[in-house]
Amino acid sequence: MEKHFYIVIVCALMSLHLLLVQGARQGQDIKCGACRALVDEMEWAISQIDPKKMIQTGSFRINPDGSQSVREVPFSRSESHLLELMEEVCERMNDSLTPESALSFFMRDFSQCETIVEQHEDELIEFFAHETDNVKDKLCSKRTDLCDHALKIPHDEF
């Protein structure tokens, strides 16, 4: 009788462990999906800006040699534009959700998107200002570890 009791306890503990692991994995999937959706939305918003539109950045002070440290960068990838996009991106993604969209699964907790933007603002600006290839993998997997469990997920699976 005592042997059966231990078997039941071991089975219950194993079941509890599996439920906890599955719950943790689902949490990782939600964060990963939210990051990847955020990158998609940011890339789309950047693509809507005329690539020829430029903005001057740097210091407008005159250096001792008479030169200025001003340079022109594409407006779509300027820090000021990227900051503006990051302020709006989560709200815009939330507004565009429908119950049947795949994105709604990852954005059902609206705070996921906002948390990613708040915690990784510097990385987002760095990547979108300079990177154009594989931003999802580089940012969501390698830099922030939000998708470290899913490095082999195809780009558009989420």
From TrEMBL:
Domain Saposin B-type per the UniProt entry, residue ranges: 28-151
Chain's gene name: LOC107683653
Similarity field: Belongs to the canopy family.
Signal peptide bounds: 1-23
Annotated GO CC locations: endoplasmic reticulum
Protein's UniProt name: Protein canopy homolog 2-like
Superkingdom of the organism of origin: Eukaryota
Gene3D superfamilies given in the database record: Saposin-like
Residues in coiled coil: none
Keywords: Disulfide bond, Signal
Pfam families per UniProt: DUF3456 (PF11938)
Organism: Sinocyclocheilus anshuiensis
InterPro entries: CNPY, DUF3456, SaposinB_dom
